[in-house]
Amino acid sequence: MREDEKFLVLLSQFEITNKKIENILAALGDDISIKNFFALESAKKLVGEELYANMQTCASATRLEMYLTNLKNAGITLLTRFSDGYPYKLEVLPDAPYFLFCKGNIDLLKETAISIVGSRTPSNYGRIMTDRFSEGLAKAGVVVVSGLAYGVDSIAHRKALEVGGKTIAVLGSGMNNIYPAEHTSLAKEIAEKGLLISEYCPSMKATRYTFPQRNRIIAGLSDGVLITEAGLKSGTVHTKDFALDYGKDVFALPGNVTSEKSELPNGLIKSGQGQAVTEADDILKFIGFERKEEKKTEKAVKLSFEEQEIVNLLSKGDKDMEFLSKNSTLNINILNSYLTTLEIRGIIRRLPGGVYGLV
Amino acid sequence: MLSKVKSFGLKGIEGFPIDVETDVSNGLPKFDIVGLADTAIKEAKERVRTAIKNSGFEYPTRKITINLAPADIKKEGALYDLAIAISILATDEALAISSHKNYVMIGELSFDGEIKRVKGVLPLLISARKLGYKKFIVPVENATEAGFISGIEVYPISTLEECVRFLKGEITINKVEVCEFEKVISASEGGLNFSNVKGQARAKRALEIAAAGGHNLLMIGPPGSGKSMLAKCFPSILPDLTFEEALEVTKIHSIAGELDLKTGIVTKRPFRSPHHTASTVSLTGGGSNSKPGEISLAHNGVLFLDELPEYTRHSIETLRQPLEDGIITVARANATVVYPATFNLIASMNPCPCGNFGSKDRECRCTPNQIHKYLAKLSGPIMDRIDIHVEVDSVSFDDLKSQKEEESSEKIKERVDKAREIQLARFKNSKNFCNAKMSVPQTKKFCALDKTGEDILRSAFEKLKLSARAHDRLLRVARTIADLEGEDNILPQHIAEAIGYRSLDRKYWG
């Protein structure tokens, strides 16, 4: 391990701001190493007395070795900005993270990736469309990047996993403090089948400042950012700003003009900052991605007479139970059972509020 | 001078005999009551003295001591007034009352000597009959209630004076005629009817299944979608009360003092909807003067909990035992009382704190965390006892105004009755009588699926991500659906329909 890398490994054990690290590195100049740091006159002033003392106790070779072994045992790979495996996509950023704690398949960092971000409380439309985009992108072999938050983020991750695709979740907290806690099992699944990354040391808790910072990694890691649904005050605005700063493509899903949740994507389309997209293929074409597998032609599904009637009723948009029972010739019990079988066969889907729609 | 009169006290819903013993002896005028009497009985002194005086009898100006035996059981209420008064009068040799030993007397006295109604006459009489007592004197207002018990002689009395003359044989009083339950029940009016509810086909169907199989049901929908209305119609499709059931219900309502004195017996399945601010004790029953709670008053009927997550966690958890065993055991320092509490639970809730999650025309303003917290108020063990979840959405204006004839409760009830008959035959030799209460071995025996059904169930668990605890409930609900259609076997469409009623198990929530 190189000396400069060792120094960052030492720093990675503490909750230390990027700004401070920047100052330290500036003071060290070209000769970055642990020895030089402690030789530095201003060292104590740069990091503060307490941290300085802590750093001294942890600086020995054996302690560093122990730290890395512990991480390894926890399944965590530590990539510092000076490591060999550090992704090129992040390296070029002006505010690239100094550390990446990774759990899972770190090869995904090098692949073509699209991030899907948006509201934590999407509408039914947002849910469906996020699902479709994530499925389309994941099936084509693109890595789906998102932030493990409620709503659009988790829907994107789940769908990508469901279709056997690749996904990266960027955390706004340390690995041991998954936020929101309800997504702990989702995080575990992503670590097994995809990749979980965080720039914070594993014990760090999420704060309101870590999430906007996390968004810059999401934007930086991906080749394009898709916003399916978000309001003007959403945290997604940060992701969009970072993406535009970094010169990434921004894709926006057009939505209902009257819907608060589509204000951001619609605004992006209007101002020309965002490219309007309606299906995953639009994005793939735009970034010139060659799909891994050919799109399979839809298998013709055989529907019974009754099933066809339900599908016809739903063909004009999502309908609730009230509409279906009023407009179909079927008795309510028969209708109920066909709705379930159609759902199991994956032809229709059930949405919150007892609403049904075609897949 | 000593005299003795029989009366009855209540413990829970069971009566026990009490001897009212009076001794009048020389000494300074004094009136004492011994035998663990509560305040209402202690105050009987004043009522009894005034009533005797105002009825034209002489009150002994001597030392009076009353003992309520057995002396170690706590006694409460004003129902011993009459027995105390008669036992005092019986010590008066001039009055020469002799036949008082043949009767069991209950009644509260007013100052002018009138005998007022008391609570709990029906359970008292039923227990007394079991113990072999034959003749009773009860307040005239309680006569109808007493008329439903055969094999005993009940004499309705309206004043203390009348009672004394009756005991002396000076007048005759006709005993209460035994009333026929069928007559009363056919005369009783129906409540709300499903024909008044427009639309909501799925919710109605779910309620029909719940009624047929005795399943507990949870309605989820935004405010104003008609959940309460649907629930109120629910008793109208339940099978009629049998006489035995009616007696049980009446017992409880009689003790709680909630009985309609005109009919004297509960003819309709009770529908109780305690408010969500209700205390745990008001739900379970108990208190220092132990009284049946809402869940016992809902016995053999419907307990409707509107806005289920708004109830305190503690009150919801106390429902666990009654939902499982059909009884509630209330243990207090001085007594342990068991009240029956076999009810059909109908609950309703909003999908989220603001109520609009998933609504088609209103925006939900809740954060995922709020929704999660809201749903987390319903613990797993309680959700485990609710078989059917159904979503209810608001009805459009056009639907409300539509002239389309909706199916009436009577028609639905016919189907429910048929399904119940099938279940009665199926569970002939076991304790339970409806599908919802099937034990695990019974579920295995009666809810076998064919190959297609198994496949549907398996793919439902895989594709729709149902939680595992849903498995047996699904089978039981499917069994009821099959019963409603008169099928011996559960067909694939039955299991498919049942799967549709598990919305809360679905992962899209949150």
Describe the model.
The complex is a heterodimer of chains A (359) and B (510). Chain A is of the alpha/beta class and 359 residues long. Chain A is 46% helix and 13% strand. Chain A is built from 17 helices and twelve strands. Chain A has helices at residues 3-11, 18-28, 34-39, 43-47, 49-58, 61-73, 88-91, 124-140, 152-162, 184-193, 210-221, 236-245, 263-271, 280-286, 305-314, 321-327, 332-344, and strands at 77-80, 99-104, 113-117, 143-146, 167-170, 195-198, 224-227, 249-252, 275-276, 319-320, 348-351, 355-358. A nine-stranded mixed sheet of chain A has the order 1-2-6-5-4-3-7-8-9, with helices on both faces. A three-stranded antiparallel sheet of chain A has the order 10-12-11. In chain A, strand 7, helix 12 (236-245) and strand 8 (249-252) form a beta-alpha-beta unit. In chain A, helix 8 packs parallel to helix 9 (152-162) and helix 9 (152-162) crosses helix 10 (184-193). The termini of chain A are far apart. Chain B is an alpha/beta fold and 510 residues long. In chain B, 36% of the residues lie in helices and 16% in strands. Chain B has 22 helices and 18 strands. In chain B, helix 8 (201-213) runs parallel beside helix 18, helix 8 packs across helix 21 (470-484) and helix 21 (470-484) crosses helix 22. The termini of chain B are far apart. In chain B, 47% of the residues are buried. The mean pLDDT of chain B is 87. Chain A binds chain B through residues 120-121, 123-124, 127, 150-151, 180, 182, 260, 320-322, 325-326, 332-334, 336-341, 343-344, 346, 350-355, and chain B through 199-202, 204-205, 351, 357-360, 363-364, 366-369, 372, 391-393, 395-396, 399, 456, 459-460, 463-464, 481, 484-485, 492-494, 496-497, 499-500, 503, 506, 508-510.
